[in-house]
Amino acid sequence: MLKAKRLDLAVFLDQAVIIRSMKDSKDPGSVAPKIIPRAAHNVSRKDISKSALKVLYRLHEAGYQSFLVGGCVRDTMLGLHPKDFDVATNATPDEVRALFGNCRLIGRRFRLAHVRFGREIIETATFRAAANHVDDDSAHDHEGRIIRDNVYGTIDEDVWRRDFTCNALYYNIADFSIWDYVDGVKDVKRKRIVMIGDPQKRLREDPVRMLRAVRFAAKLGFTIDDTVVKAMRPNAALLSNVPAARIFDEFLKLFQSGFAERTFELLWEHHLFGEMFPATEEELLKDRKFAAFVRAALRSTDRRVAAGKSVTPMFLIGVFLWLPIKKLAEVLRAKEKMTESQSLGLAAYEIVARQQGRISMPRRFTVPMREMLALQPRFTTVRGKRAMNFLEHRRFRAAYDFMALQAEVGLLDNELAKFWTDVQTQSPDERAQSFELQSHSGEKRQPRRRRRRKRPQVS
Ligand code: ATP
Ligand code: MG
């Protein structure tokens, strides 16, 4: 079904009837869109969320322009299911709010309307003018990063502030046509990530666009255009200026969308991974087994996403930081007397603190991650009550997965991993035997030795 749809797309696009052609001029504002009528493209209302359609229709009926825009148009053309639907309109946020009871305005720098239908939110944005379109100097900082991007505009202006041509297609609810100012349909068809405007300038404006290029390339199987690749190299280091909270948001999209392994390869190829995880990059360059471990974790994350299982960022970040943490833990232990577990906990604290400068991870992830790592030495003890009780630990599952992955790539003894796999499904008696405890039900059980209590002193 998906395949058929993709083939259809090629046919549709070949037949695309272009009603209004683009003017020659490259000057934004003087460019008219190609308008591709419904009969010549494959974006169908049955593939659009009912909630998004409601928003689109209501805006249209109230006399506003209303379009679907961005990833949802791109994905629908490709026969994929968009994860969200974004609406763009010439209605101001207040005008949008007046039309919908279920609407909240969010954002300070730029106000957006969120129209809610149960759990689904339709983000509805007013057309904006590109920063450079407004006032070149005051809108950028000294490195060219956008600092002001908050001026309403028309659709003719809105298109130029978008990142890639495949992300700049507008689906018009008035007649179901697609407006294409930047030859985005052609690039979707060619499967290429092409920057709108000068790649150097656009990457300097917002270095996160480098990560976005990689994300879309990995997810869609697109090729990043050479002009963009060339511009990435000299600008990769600018990622370190991006607020660490924003990089964390992007990290989630990069590594939890089901294409983590491919994303990693592309980040590595384009020298972006080290900008996010410098300590990890250093170890990856030196240690093949660690590299295999990272790969295995990425693959397992992708498998989980494909199977609809939950994924937590703390696991993958724990994997990325594992070797730097282990190494620091050894240094700490050489200096001061402490258990392996304590040294891992301390080292994790320190390495995570250093990492926060690049990617700020909320405590709800770093705390369990530290626990998961500090628990690793406990797998080496397989006898006694304390070892058996480890199975009941609330972080056992994560710690076990982490350990098993190490065994998978030869970083740990496979027998040990097998032991911990087996005991999980054993009966209480078998389990007691495995841990070399006396059986729970058996007669052989020794009477428990009473603890000697200190007698209270009678004066
Ligand atoms: P997906 O939702 O599949 O991750 P998307 O393309 O919809 O992909 P969003 O982050 O939802 O990506 O953004 C919606 C649209 O907003 C994009 O398609 C793009 O047109 C525009 N956009 C988002 N982020 C940027 C950016 N950093 N620079 C320029 N345009 C952007
Ligand atoms: Mg989107």
Q: How would you sum up this structure in a few lines?
A:
The chain is of the alpha+beta class. It has helices at residues 2-15, 50-61, 71-77, 93-99, 131-134, 136-139, 155-158, 184-190, 199-205, 208-220, 226-235, 244-255, 260-269, 273-276, 278-286, 288-306, 313-335, 340-355, 363-374, 385-389, 396-408, 414-423, 428-434, and strands at residues 34-36, 66-69, 86-89, 103-106, 112-117, 120-126, 169-172, 178-180, 192-193, 223-224.
CATH class of the largest domain: Alpha Beta
What would you call the shape? Answer: elongated
CATH architecture label of the largest domain: 2-Layer Sandwich
What value does the average pLDDT take? 89
- Helical stretch count? 23
Radius of gyration: 28 Å
Please give a structural write-up:
It is a single chain. The protein has 459 residues and is α+β, with helices and mostly antiparallel strands. It folds into two domains: 240 residues, Beta Polymerase, domain 2 (2-Layer Sandwich), CATH 3.30.460; 153 residues, cca-adding enzyme, domain 2, CATH 1.10.3090. It is 50% helix and 8% strand. It is built from 23 helices and ten strands. The strands form two sheets. It has an eight-stranded mixed beta sheet. The protein has a two-stranded parallel ribbon with strand order 9-10. Strand 5 and strand 6 form a beta hairpin. The N and C termini lie far apart (89 Å). The relative contact order is 0.06. The N terminus is likely disordered. The site of adenosine-5'-triphosphate (ATP) has 13 residues, from helix 10.
